[in-house]
């Protein structure tokens, strides 16, 4: 399959929809798919017309983890040092629409999205311990922050399978819906971010949240104060206040490249 076909790209106004597209393999992850995903995210980050990104899978799955057959024939390292955690450094909000089974690297990619919608019957597993692997791709940093150390250890050590409803109860996902409604709900949410929220504000807030995971309260508070002062020099605040008083949708400027 040509690399361009492994992830489909669709622009829906200011929302970029990326679809993992290997449905015959439950969208299992390949080295070329990895490179294309990173390229597309970085391109979206620099594209002023994109204000939010939605990631989903074609067919009945989101991403079943690494395609082991592709791994057998791939070079051990292709020189691309970008990690899945690149997602949290992208300034635009990334929403995962988890429509079906998700495992291993697919789960990591979903968890590093900023907001996660999931089908209530989607199957989740970390998978790594059942393949003789370790907690890869930064999941050992993120997972305890989402669900706590004990639950993270349970999910990583056992690699047990859980459904979307339990994933929601544990805090792995933020919304759980019937399978047929997941993508629509994620796109509607992304559209609301793209049309009603300041791109500059969202970029700053995203950076604050992830930086705050490893900083103390005093550091986070001081950083917030500095950012607030800078925010008043941007046109976004004036437009936000003006649109509120005029009872209309705000017209915020895009992020620069």
UniProtKB/TrEMBL annotation:
Q: In terms of domain of life, where is this protein from?
A: Bacteria
Q: Note the SUPFAM superfamilies from the entry.
A: ClpP/crotonase
Query: Which is one GO molecular function term here?
Result: catalytic activity
UniProt lists the family membership as follows:
Belongs to the enoyl-CoA hydratase/isomerase family.
| PANTHER family (alphabetical) | ENOYL-COA HYDRATASE, IP11341P-RELATED
> What name does the UniProt record give this protein?
Enoyl-CoA hydratase/carnithine racemase
User: Species name for this entry?
Assistant: Saccharopolyspora gloriosae
């Amino acid at each position: 399959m040509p690399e361009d076909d492994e992830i489909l790209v669709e622009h829906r106004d200011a929302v970029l929809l990326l679809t993992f597209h290997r449905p015959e393999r439950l969208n299992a992850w390949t080295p070329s798919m990895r490179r294309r995903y990173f390229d597309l995210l970085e391109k979206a980050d620099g594209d002023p017309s994109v204000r939010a990104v939605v990631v989903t899978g074609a067919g009945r799955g989101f991403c079943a983890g690494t395609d082991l057959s592709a791994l057998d024939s791939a070079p051990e390292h292709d020189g691309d040092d970008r990690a899945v955690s690149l997602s949290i450094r992208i300034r635009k909000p990334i929403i995962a629409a988890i429509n079906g089974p998700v495992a291993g690297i697919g789960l990591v990619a979903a968890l590093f999205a900023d907001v996660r919608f999931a089908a209530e019957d989607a199957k989740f597993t970390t998978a790594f311990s059942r393949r003789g692997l370790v907690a890869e791709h930064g999941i050992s940093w993120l997972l305890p922050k989402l669900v706590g150390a004990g639950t993270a250890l349970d999910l990583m050590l056992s690699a047990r399978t859980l459904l979307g409803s339990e994933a929601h109860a544990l805090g792995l996902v933020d919304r759980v819906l019937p399978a047929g409604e997941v993508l629509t709900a994620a796109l509607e949410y992304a559209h609301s971010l793209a049309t009603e929220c300041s791109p500059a504000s969202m970029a700053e807030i995203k950076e604050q949240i992830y930086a705050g995971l490893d900083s103390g309260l005093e550091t986070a508070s001081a950083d917030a104060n500095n950012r607030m002062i800078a925010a008043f020099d941007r046109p976004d605040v004036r437009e936000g206040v003006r649109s509120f008083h005029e009872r209309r949708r705000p017209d915020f400027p895009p992020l620069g490249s």
